[in-house]
Amino acid sequence: MTALPFLAAILAFVLFGLATDQHHGKRFRRACPRGRAIRLRATAWTLLALAFALSMIAWGAVFGPIGWFASIISGAALAFAALNFIPLPARRPRG
Amino acid sequence: MSKGFRQSQATLHTWSGLLVGWVLFIVFVTGTAAYWREALNRWAQPELPPIEQPARVVRGAQLLLQRDAADAASWFITVPSTRSASGSVFWVPGAKAPPTPGETSARIDANGAKVVARATLGGDFFYRFHFDLHYVPYYVARWIVGICAMFMLVAILSGIVTHKKIFRDFFTFRGGKGQRSWLDGHNAVAVLGLPFHLMITYTGLVTLMTLLMPWAAVANYSAPFSMGRLLYPEAPAVPRADRPAPLVDLAAVLRDGERRLGAPVDIISVTAPGDASARILLSQSNHGTLSSLTPRLTYDGVSGRLLWAAPLPGAAAVTAGAMIGVHAGRFADAAIRWVYFLCGIGGSVMVASGLLLWSVKRREKLPDPARPPFGFRLVERLNIGFVAGFPAAMVGFLWANRLLPLTLPTRAEAEINAMFVLWGVLLLHAFLRRPRRAWVEQLALTAALLLALPLFDMLATARGLPATIAAGDATLAGVDLTLIALGLAYAAIARGVHRHVPARRRSRSRARA
């Protein structure tokens, strides 16, 4: 049960990261179109809200907010590491 | 105007960070280790069996106290949890005791027997050092740590202002670019862990608030102990009856208290044990509750009847208690504890990278890199001695726990002295060697000490990694695995520093060639 808020937060921050031109460009080889950035960020915010609800369920009303912050910090750190340090898949040379 | 303000904040950030950075680093690192205080306590006394039934320890404690301290004025028993290494007792000798009483404390193991194990402070040492330092009176140490924490808060807040693109650069890391990479790394650990860093610094100051800002307490509670009595109320005191009466079974009272509180109890204190006026005070444990100010119950020591329950504390007291609770994280389950620990490492890396950034930034502007000014050299060497040397010395403390003879007098203190001797040697080493060599050697030493420790345990004790994994002892296996992971990380960093070729020097040597 405690794994769920962490998973939601990781996914949220990966989406936040992909909504930036820098990481979108790195992974998809083009800047992030405006509409897509808005959709990615909206989904990410929804996931953070979901992580809050899941934290309240996992840890209860007193520790839930602390667990939520714990999942946010972990999610941000893991997404940061994934976006910056997971190498890009080898690209096929274009003909 | 805004540029001037940001520039002033940048200057404030640089100097408030540098001046206290070294103390902050050791406070951060030991505080981080202290999140595993209980695990390290268990690790430090591998002779002890793990605790399965805390009530059994309490029964043993009562037997020991009735035998050795029957006439005491009061007893204090710490009730262990299943994570603790042992329970403990101490007593205040009664009026009939000789003026120089012998032993007045003991530790109790899982079977209720008096502990026969190596003398050590274990993880408690890192916990105490985190705010009491060592070799200095505790109030001086707390002032030092408190002032440094205030600088830290200033450094964090001015750092947020200085960081120009906190959201746009949130996911940015540009590796292999010298100062740029250092700044990105410093920003990343600072921003990613920002909620933790702000919380830990602010609540750390709250734990010391009556020391750092005593005026409100002094003005409002002038009578001695009046504030303490308000914060920690007690049942009305009763005069000693001087009529012997057997003390009720403490384990039964403990069971009743835990049922009423709905939470574990961690301290039992008994006044006038063995007398008809005996009273038992139970304090609820911090585990499983946010506020460090926990409810208490008083029982009649003869009948075992509940006499008094502490009134609910006021909102201000609960607020302070909750802040201290969030700081210490005693409530944390495994998942949140790991996040605390990793955030602590993040905070240590933030302080360390900030210190290093100071030299990295200035090195590029040195008029003569071969002969840097004294201030630059001092900072550079102190950075090595603190950032690389202190963690190495901490692992040295763990080695001293394993290597010092078990019968050594004042053994617990000797472990601590061993740590500081090693740290002293490493500080000296940092000043004597060329900086790059000193970094590599000290980082590699830390890696070697960390990696060899689980290996030593496997060969020399019955609690090596395979044994603890086979026994399903997640705590001890976790300590060993964490040491290995940290050792590998240190080895990777040492290798990275060793192989690193600074961009500027490379271009120079090319030019020379």
Automatic annotation (TrEMBL), chain A:
Domain of life: Bacteria
Pfam families noted in UniProt: DUF3325
InterPro entries hit by this protein: DUF3325
Membrane-spanning segments: 6-21, 42-62, 68-86
Keywords attached to this entry: Membrane, Transmembrane, Transmembrane helix
Protein name according to UniProt: DUF3325 domain-containing protein
TrEMBL record, chain B:
Record's keyword terms, sorted: Membrane, Transmembrane, Transmembrane helix
Transmembrane segments: 12-36, 140-161, 206-223, 306-326, 338-360, 381-400, 412-431, 443-462, 474-497
PANTHER family, alphabetized: IRON-REGULATED INNER MEMBRANE PROTEIN-RELATED, PEPSY DOMAIN-CONTAINING PROTEIN
Name of the protein in its database record: Membrane protein
The species this protein was found in: Sphingomonas glacialis
